[in-house]
Amino acid sequence: MFWLYLTVICSVVATSAQQSAPPPFDIRIDHYKVDTTKDLVINTPRPGLSWKLPIFTERNVQQTAYQIQIQSDIDKWDSEKILSSRSTHVSHENMKDLQSSTHYQIRLRVWTTLSGQASSWTNWIQFRTSVFNLHEYIMQKNDDVYWIGSTQIYMNELRKEFNVSSTSPIRTATVLISGIGYYELYVNGQSVDPSRKLDPGWTTYEKRTLMVSYDLTSMIKGGMNAVGVKLGNGWYSQEQYVPPSASEPNYGPPRLMFALSIVFVSSETMSVVSDQTWKGRQGSIVHDSVYNGEIVDSRNDRVDWAKVGFNDSFSLWVTPEIMQSPINVAANGQLSLQDMPPIRAGVDALQFEIDNPLNLENSYLSKEDLAGIQGGNLHDGGVLKPISVSTPVLGVHTFDMGQNMVGWCRFHFHGPRGLGIYIRHAEVLAQPVESTKQSYGGIYTENLRGATQTDSYILRGDPNGEIYEPRFTVHGFRYISVYGSPVGLSVNDVECPVVHSQTTVKGHFASSNPIINQIQHNVQWGQLGNSMSLPTDCPQRDERKGWMGDAALTVNEALYNFDLIKFYLNFLNLITDIQLADGSIADTVPVTFGGYPSDPNWGTALPTITWQLYRHYNDEQILRDHYSSIRAYVEALRAGYKNTGLAKLAYHYGDWVPPPPQPMTNVYLIASFAFMHDVSLLINMSQIIGFTNDTQAYTGFYTQLAEEFHRVFFTPSGGYYADGMQAAQILALALPNVVPASARDSVFQHLLQDINAKGNHTSTGIVSTAQLFPLLSDNGQHNLAVQLVSSTTYPSYGYMFNNPYENATTMWELWDAPMEGPGMNSRNHHMFASIGAWFYSHLAGIDFQSDLIVIHPRMVSEDKKHLLSKIDCQLNTLYGLVHVSYTRDERNTFANSILLRVSIPTNAKAHVVFEPLFPNAKCVLLTESNKVMWSITNKDNTVSHDAQTGLMTVQIGSGEYEYQAFWE
Ligand SMILES: *[C@@H]1O[C@H](CO)[C@@H](O)[C@H](O)[C@H]1NC(C)=O
Ligand SMILES: *[C@@H]1O[C@H](CO)[C@@H](O)[C@H](O)[C@H]1NC(C)=O
Ligand SMILES: *[C@@H]1O[C@H](CO)[C@@H](O)[C@H](O)[C@H]1NC(C)=O
Ligand SMILES: *[C@@H]1O[C@H](CO)[C@@H](O)[C@H](O)[C@H]1NC(C)=O
C-alpha cells in the first residue's frame, strides 16, 4: 500500500521537475559509492552521506540547501529543505537512526547559488542495513547455528537442500555467511557473486572473524532450493613459513557458518542454518594454499552439486562435524560484518572516477608524452593477455604477461583424461649464464623462497577442451611456465584476471617526463597488487604480510590514487584488535612476523593511516573513533622512552634497505623520528577534535623531545646530525621545530653536498626516502628533487626499468634487485612507492586543508625545464574532479612563464598558489583567460602577494580557469 503511494508521489515530482537542474551524483553512504556497490549493506544506524553537484558553466557555484528523503516499508523520513552548503559526511541531527536488517531507499536534491529552484531528485537509491549487533545475534542462535567442517577429510564442498513451504511470497531472504579461510557461495547451482574472490578478509580470527551478508531474495524460490559452499584454507589454515622463533597460528581445517533468514509477506519467517543436516565431501580441489597454489583433479567436479535433486553415487558425501568457533569470546573476540569492498577479479575489481587519460582534450600533454610506458593498462578491463609465448624446453610454454601482476590465469587446456598439467608463476626470467651469456629463457623462482606458486590441474578429458581457473590461491608474477600440455598452447589459451580489493581509481598523474610516468605506473600497479583485504608488503613469496611500515609509508600515495577508505578503516580495526593493554602494537597485523611491540617506524601505521584518512576525506569522526587507541600507543612509546631516552630508543629495522654499499645511519635517530612524528600527529588530532588539554600536554612534551633530539643527535663539529648521512639530515629537517634556526642552513647544505658528492644520488632507505622529495621541494631545491627522480643510474627509481637485466613494471624491494640473491628480493614491494604521493602533493601540488583544496604546483627553473615542462593531473575529491595541468612550452614566446589550467568542482573552494620560478623571482603579470588579474601596475585585490616568499595566491570557487604567470 505504502509503495503504491510512493510511486504516485515520484511521478508527480518527475513531471514538475523538467526545467530543474540535474540532480546531485556519485552519492556515498557511509563512504560506499552507491554507483559501484551491488547490494549496498550499511553497518551503522547513522551513516554519513556525501554527494557531488553537477558541473555548471558558471563559476563559483555553491550549494545553498539540500533535502533528503529516506523510506522503508514501515517508516519514512523527510529532512525538508535544510539550508546548508555541506555536501560531505552529512548526518543530520533530526535524521532518525536506521533500523537493523531493513531495506531502505533514499533520494536527495539540492539548491545552488544559481537558482532558487531545486534540482531534480536523484533516483531512489536502494540499500539495506545489516544486523547491527551481529555478534549477539549469532550468539543468541547458539543452539541451532554451528560452525561445520571436518577433521577427518578435507571437506571443502558442503551442500544442503531445503523446502520453502510457505504459500506466502518471499519478502526478503538474507544470509550471513563466514567460511574460513575462504568460501564461495552457490544457490540453486549459481554462484551468488562470481567476481568476488578470496572472501572473507584476513583477520586475527580469534579476535574478529568476518561475516558477509548477501541478499538472496531473487535467488530463493518457493519449494525446494539448494545451497552449496566451497571452502578453502586461506589464511586460516595456511601453510606458514616463519622463523622457528616465531609462532604463527594455523588454526585447523576450514569451517563454515551459515544463517539464512527468510521473511515472507505474511510476516512468517523461516531460517536455514549450518548444522549436521548438511552434507560435505572433498571436491575437485585436492589441496589449496595461498602461497603454494592449488592441486585440482577435475575428474571430481560435479557440475550440479549445488542444484536441487543432485545425486552423486561416486563421491563420499558425509555429515560434517561440529567445529570449534574461531572466536575467543573470553578475549573479547567477535563476529563482525565485513564492512569494506571485497577482493574481486577482473573488470569488477576496478572502477574509475577519472577521465581516460588518453582523452587529451583538456590536457597540455600529447599522445607522445604518454607513449612508452611499459606494462598493462589499468583501463583495459582487468584481464591481461600474454604479450608473448616461448617454448624454452620441449613441453614447456613460458608466457610473458608484460606486467608484474597479482591474480592468476584462466587456461584453455586440451588433453586426455587423467593427465596432469603444472603451472608455475615467477616475477622474472633466469639471467643468462655468466660463462656463455646465454639464457635458457626459463623462469626464476628462487626469490619466491618457500612459496611454490604452482597450480596443478588434472584433466577430465573433455574432447571440447576444458577451462581451468584457480579459486583459493593468488600469485604475484609476470611470467608463467606451463609444463606438460600435450598440445601446443598459444597466447589465446591464456588470460589472467587482475585481483585485488575492489576500489575506484580516483587519481591520474602524467607528465612530459617518461621516467616519472613509468614510476607512477609502477606505483599504481604495486599498490593494487598489495591491496588484498589488507595492505601487504608483497604478493608473491612466502610472506605477503600486513607489514605496518609498508602500510604507513604508502597510505598517502594510495589515497591519492585509489578510493580505499573502507579498506584502511578495516585495517585500523585489525590493528586495534592486536593492541595490548599497555597500548603497544606489532610490526605485522595480523601478528605473524616481526616484533611485538613494534619498531616505531612500523607502529606509526596506526596514527599515520588515521591521519591520512582524515586529511584525504575530511571526516573528523575517523579521528574521534581512533583517538584513544592512538593516544594509548603514543603512551606505550613514551613508557619505553622513559627507560632509554631518545639516544637509545628501541627499534628493530631502522631506515630499512638503503642502497648497497651505503650503510644505515644512526638507528636511534630513525626510531626517534617516528616517535616524534606520532606525538606531533597526536597534537594535530587533539586540536581538531577539541581535546585541548591533550594539545597542551603533548605540545609541552614535544618541545622537550625536540630539544633532546638536537642535543643527542647533533654533531656540532660537522654542523650535521649523527654521522652526516643523508637520512639523518632528512629526518631531522622533516620534523617540525627540531633543527634550530642557527643550524638549519648547515644541515641542509650538508645534505645537498652529500647528494651532489654521490653524483646526485640518494643513500636513503624506506623511511627517509619518503621524506626526501617533499623536503627538497618545500625548501627551494625542487630542481634537485626533479633531477633525482629523473635519474636512471644506480641507485634510482629509474634504474629499476633502465638496466641491462629487467624492466620493472612494479616497485622493487631493493634498489639493486638484479645484483642480489634470492633471500629477500621481491620485484613488487611497494614500500618505496611513497614517492607517488609527491607527484600529487608537490608536482601537481594538490593538498587539503580541512574542506579547502590547495593547488600549489612546484616547477623547475627555466634551465631545467627539459626535465619536466608539462604535467596533467586529475584527482577526484569528495566534491568532484579537480584537474590541474601546466605547461612551460606552449606559446613558448616568453621565458619564465607558465600556463596553468585548473578545474574546481562545484561547491568546492580552492586556493591556487603560484610559486616563483627561480629564487627571488617576482611575478610581473598574472592573467586568467587572457585577462590581466595582476600586474606591477594593476594589483587586483583578489590576488594576494606575499612579498617575502614571492608566492601569489588566488582564491577561487568552482569552474575552469586558465592562468598565465610571468616571472622576472
Ligand atoms: C515442500 O513443502 C510443501 C508444503 O508443505 C509440500 O507440499 C511439498 O511436497 C514439499 N516439497 C518437497 C519436495 O518435500
Ligand atoms: C584530557 O581530557 C580527557 C577527557 O576528559 C582525558 O581522558 C585525558 O586524560 C586528559 N588528558 C590529559 C593530558 O590530562
Ligand atoms: C646535480 O644536480 C645539481 C642541481 O640540479 C646540478 O647542478 C649538477 O650538475 C648535478 N650533478 C650531476 C653530476 O649530475
Ligand atoms: C627494457 O625496455 C627497453 C625499451 O623498450 C628495451 O629496449 C630493453 O630490451 C628492455 N630490457 C629488458 C631486459 O627487457
TrEMBL record:
Signal peptide (from-to): 1-17
Keyword Signal included in the entry's annotation: yes
Entry's Gene Ontology BP terms: carbohydrate metabolic process
GO MF, any single term: alpha-L-rhamnosidase activity
Keyword Glycoprotein: no
The protein, known as: alpha-L-rhamnosidase
Domain Fibronectin type-III: 23-132
EC numbers for this chain: 3.2.1.40
PROSITE patterns the UniProt entry points to: FN3 (PS50853)
InterPro entries linked: 6-hairpin_glycosidase_sf, 6hp_glycosidase-like_sf, Alpha_rhamnosid, Bac_rhamnosid6H, Bac_rhamnosid_N, FN3_dom, FN3_sf, Ig-like_fold
